[in-house]
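Re: duplicated header lines in exported structure tokens

Our pipeline writes sequence and tokens for each protein into one text file. With two proteins the header for the second block appears twice in some exports. Here is an export where it did not happen, for reference. First protein block:
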Amino acid sequence: MTATATTTGGAPLPNAVVQFAVTDGPNKGVAGGGATDANGQAIFSYTGKSGAGTDTIQANIGALNSNAVQATWQVPSKCPQSQGYWKNHPNVWPVSSLILGSQTYSKAELLQILGNPGGGDASQILAVQLIAAKLNIAHGSDPAPISATIAAADRLLAGFSGKLPYKVKTSSTTGQSMTQSGATLGSYNTGQLTLSCTP
């Protein structure tokens, strides 16, 4: 945070002692201070240590208070895991079923799909990555980078009746769309689209 002190005439006020305090929020009670520079500015920085939420910060010079500003802290989202991770760790799944396209699949059905990741069937290639992406989001990964691709993938799968596999050739127009969406989902599942996350 930067506080700017000026005289009543608007000129910078150097060498004024500014006190900063977090008056509300998860880091309430954190304080600091410093003297203003030649431009009348004093800087305050602190490390959030109490989790997510919004802090209110105010500065003062003696009895003269600044306007209050806010800083919002967010807990980093969890890093996505690959489809191989979810296939090999069913005991840590955050859900027991998922909707792919317009069909609901049980955990056993999803594991069967994960165990057969392609074989030239574009619907399988897409489904494997879609399962992993949906499990990652349910587990706490940031959905923002991939939500549009997930919606597109569900629309592609919803165009077929019954349950997977749909035996879609990768060379077909639909198959190409499926493999492209699958590749984007794969990038998400390997952490390439979520650079600020925690393991």
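Second protein block, exported in the same file:
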Amino acid sequence: MTKIHTLRSTNGLEVDFIGYGGRITSIRVPDRDGAVADVTPGYASLDDYRRDPLYLGAIVGRFANRIGGSRFVLDGHEYLLTPNEGANQLHGGPGGFHQAMWRVDASAEQSAVLSLSSPRGDQGFPGKLDVTVTYSATAANELVVDYEAATTEPTPVNLTQHMFFNLAGHSAGDILGHELTLAASHYTPVDRSLIPTGEIASVRGTPFDFRAPRTIGDRVSDTDEQMLIGGGYDHNFVLDADGTGEPTFAATVLDPKSGRSLEVFTTEPGIQFYGGGGFARIPLGKDGFRYSANAGLALETQHFPDSPNRPQFPSTIVRPGEIYRSRSVYRFGT
């Protein structure tokens, strides 16, 4: 493994990360009885992170999620991107930020700054993009992720952190018994290539209604068409944000067995809930553990997928002279 950096809060939270992909490799938090466990799935070796198909713990960009047809038109010019999921581009392409070696300034115990310069034409995107991501561990047992980016040409920017969580412990089995709440009255349905149809649909009466706490396994085998397309939960939820520009409540996850909880707050308009159906196909995990399907869940704070091709969605375009800023907060408790 490459060099591991550790952040420590003053109240028991410990976060390990590496420069490769800016990947968070371990999150250790206490349960209701004070017992500490690592609650994020991961790998033991750098080679496994290089082969990883699920973006475990990675900073994702330039554009998180999918861009349909690996193309978009901006200011009258068509840009062709590098595809890596059939005809589409997923999470910034095959050489996206998850594969980059980030520069790390970890001189403080509670925070670290990661930086990266993405050259003009990287994976097909216009402009040179300079990015900084700051990880902070607070006394409230929060992991705070701050993103900033500046560009030399107009370009889409949509950054996220692709952590997975199993609040019972990374090797405790599946997360189907976890209770999830999402502050989302709507979601964006997808076609069979997982590209949004453009509709913003109500969650009412569907398996996507998590406005009140509900176990993830409650309707994971539902025959709803969207569930069949996604192989379970792999959808963008439209958050009921207050529009203040400050991080607002997005989600809560509770593991009834350990009592551990996670609250997510974000400045982003959306959150991708992925139930981890793909875990059965990843390499051997850390501690020699073989993960099974649904071994962890991801809550990817983001702008909506395919936004450069969907003018009805919130814009992701950043122009020279503007600063892209985003903040997401992951608060652990019991």
